[in-house]
Amino acid sequence: MDTVGPAKADLALTGEGADNTQALTYPRIDCKNVSVYYDDKQAVFDVSLAIHDRAVTALIGPSGCGKSTFLRCLNRMNDTIEGAKVTGDIFMEGENINSPDVDPVLLRSRVGMVFQKPNPFPKSIYDNIAYGPRIHGMVDGRDDLDAVVEKSLRRAGLWDEVKDRLTQPGTSLSGGQQQRLCIARAIAVRPEVILMDEPCSALDPIATARIEELIDELRKRYCIVIVTHSMQQAARVSQRTAFFHLGNLVEMGDTDQIFTNPRVRRTEDYITGRFG
Amino acid sequence: MLQQLGQLPMGWLLTALLLFVVSAGFSIGRIRAERYSLSSSGKFHSRPNYHGYYVAMWGLAPALILALAYLLLAEPLARDLLTRELPAAFHRLPKAELVSYLDAVSAVSAHGAYDGSDRVFTAVTHRYLELSGSLKITTLAMILLSAVLGVMFARSHVSPDFRARQRVESGAELFLFLCAAIAIATTVGIVASLFYESIRFFSQVPVTDFLFGTRWNAQTNAEFGAVPLFFGTFMIALIAMFVAAPVGLFAAIYLSEYASGKTRAYVKPLLEVLAGIPTVVYGFFALLVVAPGVRSIALWINATLIDVGLANGPVFAAQPTSALAAGLVMGIMVIPFVSSLSDDVINAVPQTLRDAAFAMGATKSETIKQVILPAALPGIVASLLLAVSRAIGETMIVVMAAGQRARISFDPSTDLTTITVQIVALLTGETEFDSPKTLSAFALGLVLFLVTLCFNLIALRVVQRYREKYE
């Protein structure tokens, strides 16, 4: 069901040399038989898939299909939900991150996350970005921190808009700016993977377009997994797409293939709008 | 004849009369509306029931006002009329004696006409019964008349086009408004009487002496410097908050962030039971358990300090009642005020903020310290302020365990007195209502009211601000 490696076009896009190619050859995250239970109710059934580095993987499917729940396995966010249980193996750099030995706190510094609703902390713009580097002890001194903040904001395409008001509260920004602030906050801790849970669902079309451009830009450096309800968005920003239905992974493949030539009937029905 | 009427049970009579007016008015309105709708082909705007309610409303409202006026005014009016008829000898009596004489008259009259050896008293009670009898019969007649007039007036309105429903709705609204107004009016009344009596007090004792004087001896020496009372109140409330603020806050953090749903379901109500314990129970707990404990610890420290040569004599007063005992127990009492409200505000911090912090790799305690508490801080401050105003106004615990001596001392093992304790002391037992001693209680009450009002207002403002932020 799964094709190995991204589409050829990706190679040209990323173009950062030899070790890049290697990262592309091997999956960044390899999930084997992942199931999730909320108390006795099973929400995700035996999902196995590979997520590639320096590429955007979109998880699509109707509401309640388990795609967000699956996404939250990748940074162990389900640990924070009472009664949630995750089984199966999730290998990241050869390490099973679903093992009880792995400290979720350290894992989450490697796997950043952006949520559906922009959720800046009720702190200044600067402190929002500085939060992660500070708690993880990643910086020495103020200058270093200033540099990290600027770099993160630049990468999130927000620097020019906020550089003169870094001390203002993050909540004073517009919705789209807040979401880019959250992305900047996530990349400030230099993660390897960024998870995005419907990052544009609370934004207007213009703000959405900016976030999508940003995602495309970030793909050159990070492994990105995005959950989206919008099939157009999946088609626009992702290189690989996984279709979930009723807690099962129905089909996964290159985005072009999924959207133009799905192998499973259910995928086709969903993409053409016959259900969902 | 009038004397017999004087013994009429007015409460029952009024209730029965009003019920009769309502049911009669309702039937009259309803039947008339129904008859109209049967005879005329046009459509009625309001259903017959509403016409019934409308007529009943017009019957009831004036009757109710008259009945209320009677209940409030009848007794003073009867007394006034009686006093005018009394022989001149009575008018030379001091006012208080005359009042207590009249009290006796109305108390005896309540059981029927008095016939005893005291001929004057017998005559006076008879006359009093006659007067109240005529008042009663007049009132009943007026109520009946006003009800009939009201019903007739309303009945003439019944017609297909008449919007009875709207009228009934606005009548109901007015009634509900009046109920709300009663609560507010009562508060205003209490505050007004506090102000009035305080002004009388301050005409005899200068405000500055009261607010800044350091000697309080209202019972014997007429010294009214309230600073020791303010100090005692403040000291005990401070001790209470030293207990309640950390314990309540940490309990709230545990409940909202760490406890599982099941634990929370048991622990939270149990904590709130603390708020339901009668304060007198806390009071004797403080007096019988905590105060002796505080005393023996203070004595032990004294002895130890002398033993090791750090002190020559006792350092702590080690009194049988103490500020510390009262403060500790009061602290326990206000824990639920802090924990319950703080728990609510911590829970009101959006889950998305917790998710954001966790997803950044923050630990649970980092999330709580750096994200949740700062976001919930205004609400937590408000809960602390409310607890402070509760502690300042608390009476029973301090009456039992804090002591009566007004003084300024930072020794927690000594006895202190508070505003509330002194108010109780001033107003229990034999009191005259215009001596500065009694009036000083009103001045103290006013201070207490203003201080707690300020705390509550600030707390409310803070909570409101906080709410605006997350909606």
From TrEMBL, chain A:
GO terms for biological process: phosphate ion transmembrane transport. One of its GO terms (cellular component) is membrane. One of its GO terms (molecular function) is phosphate transmembrane transporter activity. InterPro entries: AAA+_ATPase, ABC_transporter-like_ATP-bd, ABC_transporter-like_CS, P-loop_NTPase, PstB-like. Keywords: ATP-binding, Nucleotide-binding, Phosphate transport, Transport. It comes from the Bacteria. Residues 29-271 form the ABC transporter domain. This is Phosphate ABC transporter ATP-binding protein. It holds the Pfam family ABC_tran.
